[in-house]
Design goal:
Helix content: 25-40%
Family: Belongs to the aldo/keto reductase family.
CATH topology: TIM Barrel
Shape: globular
Organism: Aspergillus pseudoustus
Domain NADP-dependent oxidoreductase: 14-268
Number of strands: 10
Strand order of the largest sheet: 1-2-3-4-5-6-7-8
Strand content: 5-15%
InterPro entries: AKR, Aldo/ket_reductase_CS, NAD(P)_OxRdtase_dom_sf, NADP_OxRdtase_dom
Structural class: alpha/beta
Order of helices and strands: EHEHEHEHEHEHEHHHEHHHEEH
EC number: 1.1.1.307
Length: 313
């Protein structure tokens, strides 16, 4: 399964739209992915590319009913989730969305100012809005970047259990507690950043470290295939990105890892290092009241860590 393939040249105009050259490259990549067998496309309002994604789907020749479309709304849409759904449907120019996700549990004002965890709309209040949307135009709803802590609060109030929790998931942030927690609750885990995401540190380790290259040599495959196979064998969905036609095809060909392989990769965060891509994403972090926060939330608020800094997921 695949996220939107990443373009080689990304440039935005001052209206938030992609340039023509980039739109064409992205559209071709998506069509190639769909014609190569991918059947899940993940996008988001924040990416500014829903219209290109929708056009590629219509031009791919693959029946809409055979494709799962996942998109997300940003923090400033927590005040009006129904309006956010209508916006995505217009941009995609599709009749329905398969899974509509809350991109982050934190909300913002309409002007973009961060709201703290207890300020309205809280993520529980936002979820109540989402529950009312499930129907012909929105087949399922879910969350992103939620932990045992935030999910525990949500499930106390939810009528509809989230279908999906999309989280950062790779060998250096393996979520060894979070994944089984979600599975026990009937929530499917969809991982982003399985090959290291936007972190060069994570990419270098996952693609070149001896722990991964030795397993790749054993199975006569790429190190990328090793990490993607590891995630799938744990029962999670992967959404790899690539602009390379050959890599798009390669990423769908998984291998069967044995118990020893799985154990080594599960232990990579101890043998190499713990690394959370979200911690270094400069677009997400802001200073508030003299503290570094993720849009007004701390790592403790998220449930990423405890007061002593121990990772909890």
């Amino acid at each position: 399964m695949a996220d939107i393939p990443k373009c080689s040249k990304v440039f935005k105009l001052n209206n938030g739209r992609l340039g023509t050259e980039d739109e064409e490259a992205l559209e071709k990549s998506i069509i190639h992915a769909l014609q190569s067998g991918y059947r899940l496309i993940d996008t988001a309002q924040y990416y500014g590319i829903e219209s290109t994604v929708g056009r590629a789907i219509r031009r791919s020749g693959v029946p809409r009913s055979a494709i799962t479309i996942v998109t997300k709304f940003w923090g400033n849409a927590h005040h009006d989730v129904a309006g956010a759904l209508d916006l995505s449907l217009r941009e995609l120019d599709l009749d329905y969305i398969d899974v509509f996700l809350m991109h982050w549990p934190w909300a913002m004002t309409l002007e973009g100012h961060p709201l703290r965890i207890d300020e309205s709309p809280t993520f529980v209040e936002t979820w109540r809005q989402m529950e009312a949307l499930v129907g012909d135009k929105c087949r399922g709803i879910g969350v992103c970047n939620c932990t045992q802590k935030t999910l525990g609060v949500l499930l106390e109030h939810a009528v509809v259990v989230p279908a999906v929790n999309q989280v950062e998931l790779h060998a250096l942030n393996p979520c060894l507690r979070l994944v089984p927690y979600c599975q026990e609750k009937g929530i499917h885990v969809m991982g982003w950043g399985t090959l290291g995401g936007d972190s060069q540190v994570a990419k270098n380790h996952i693609l070149t470290n001896e722990l991964f290259t030795s397993i790749a040599e054993k199975h006569e495959c790429s190190t990328g295939a090793v990490s993607l196979s590891w995630a799938v064998q744990r029962g999670t969905t992967i959404i790899p990105k690539s602009s390379s036609p050959a890599r798009i095809v390669e990423n769908i060909r998984l291998v069967s890892l044995d118990d020893e392989d799985m154990a080594k990769i599960n232990d990579a965060h101890r043998r190499i290092e713990l690394h959370r891509v979200s911690n270094i994403h400069h677009l997400l972090w802001i200073d508030l009241d003299g503290k570094r926060t993720l849009r007004g939330w701390t790592g403790v608020d998220f449930g990423w860590e405890d007061e002593e800094g121990n990772w909890l997921t």
